[in-house]
Amino acid sequence: MTRLAAVLGSPIGHSKSPKLHGYWLRKYNIDGHYVPLHVDPENLENMLNILPQIGFQGVNITIPHKESVLKFSDEITQSAKAIGAANTLTFQNGKIKADNTDGYGFIQNIHQMAPDWNFAGNIALVLGAGGAARAVIWSLLQSGVDNIILSNRTQSRAEDLQNLFGSKIIVAEWSNIEKYVDQIDLLVNTTSLGMIGQPDLKFDLQKINQNVLVTDIIYTPLQTQLLKDAKNRGCITVDGLGMLLHQAAPGFEAWFGQRPTIDSDVRTHILS
Ligand code: ATR
């Protein structure tokens, strides 16, 4: 039986997921298809009723449905609950299981690219307080970081995340973030600053220590100005492409029965 999966979103044309899953389907010689489906909010519930009935194993969920999809799900994993959003649904025995693998993807990317790096006991500076930041913060807390200094242009959004995640989160003013730079072990950009078409993140790294790990969840471009500056300062840098690849792996395995390997070939393919 041909296995089917999809990514649901609006807009959906920019999604890299069809290219990624299509690559793995060919690589592992699996009889399956993965398609992008443009779904507007008013059609989401109907779509989730129909897809399992016509043979879909599950779907990825992207903007703007990641939060709203939870109310149509029967089972919600601990990560999806804590993050308040889901990106991976599996259809099983008439039920919808919702998971969030973004935080997992974020951590696995760093494990793979910087295998000697340890999160435990560290102080992280996280920039941004959107949906991506929620997944990153949850996964950093799970991985044992001591404190997270959180800064966002709109401070109230950072304070909302502090209320959600508790006293390990320290909110810092956006205009004053550089003052923390010499105290941190990890710097994560979850804002859209530095992405193609957006202004660069202006961040003075002069006082950053050399053993700090700097990572960006952006992967267009792969080497953001932040990562270039960090590399020039002698920091360890990890680009955001691996987060995309690793977050996709659990869904692919659940729907198509094969855990995909994340290697340089798939990175090259996605960038081509
Ligand atoms: P996502 O779900 O991908 O995290 P989002 O919720 O739109 O997307 O969040 C985007 C993040 O980038 C936010 O932290 C946003 O800051 P605000 O909460 O103040 O909007 C940040 N961001 C986007 N453009 C920015 C800019 N020009 N300067 C500073 N921060 C910016």
Automatic annotation (TrEMBL):
E.C. number(s) listed in UniProt: 1.1.1.25
Keyword Oxidoreductase: yes
Domain Shikimate dehydrogenase substrate binding N-terminal: 7-89
Function: Involved in the biosynthesis of the chorismate, which leads to the biosynthesis of aromatic amino acids. Catalyzes the reversible NADPH linked reduction of 3-dehydroshikimate (DHSA) to yield shikimate (SA).
Pathway(s) this gene product operates in, as recorded in its UniProt entry: Metabolic intermediate biosynthesis; chorismate biosynthesis; chorismate from D-erythrose 4-phosphate and phosphoenolpyruvate: step 4/7
Assembly description: Homodimer.
Chain ranges of the Quinate/shikimate 5-dehydrogenase/glutamyl-tRNA reductase domain: 118-192
Signal sequence extent: none
Gene3D superfamilies per record: Leucine Dehydrogenase, chain A, domain 1, NAD(P)-binding Rossmann-like Domain
Name of the protein this chain belongs to: Shikimate dehydrogenase (NADP(+))
Organism of this sequence: Parasulfitobacter algicola
Coiled coil: none
